[in-house]
Design brief:
By secondary structure, this protein is an alpha/beta fold. Helices cover 33% and strands 24% of the residues.
């Protein structure tokens, strides 16, 4: 099994680099229980005890779905993903919830609340408005 990890890890890294170049990234996370981290919480008392699974859908020429599980939340995983983005690329459109922990990334990003504004953000020219948060005027129609 260990002999398979090298090629799988290389493929995952390639998919991360590809996803970072895509025009639009959808992200979300949820809590998860990871047995090894639960054991760490009991024995080593880490500063951060939370556990998350973050999911990303990257839309480009091909659609790529990536999952990360561990102590990092979606914003931190977004930061490590977007670190692979070429500097010459336009800002990414990031569809995410409105949590303050979503990201600490300083690069220009167009953010949108996924519920209700996906179509608006897709039609927006990222070069014209490099750092914008889109909020739907009426969210109640979604529910």
């Amino acid at each position: 099994m260990a002999s398979m990890m090298g090629p799988v890890h290389a493929m995952f890294n390639h998919l991360m680099v590809y996803a970072a170049q895509c025009d639009c990234l959808y992200q979300d996370d949820t809590g998860v229980k990871i047995l090894s981290l639960i054991s760490d919480n009991k024995h080593t008392h880490p500063t951060r005890k939370g556990m998350y699974t973050s999911g990303f859908i990257a839309e480009g020429e091909h659609k790529v779905v990536l999952y990360f599980s561990g102590r990092a939340h979606a914003g931190e995983n977004f930061d490590s993903l977007i670190a692979h983005r070429q500097a010459s690329k336009d800002p990414v459109i990031r569809m995410a919830d409105a949590l303050s922990a979503t990201s600490k990334h300083e690069a220009p990003v167009i953010e949108a609340i996924a519920q209700g504004s996906a179509g608006v953000a897709k039609r927006m020219d990222a070069r014209e408005r490099p750092s914008v948060t889109l909020m739907p005027f009426v969210v109640s129609g979604v529910y």
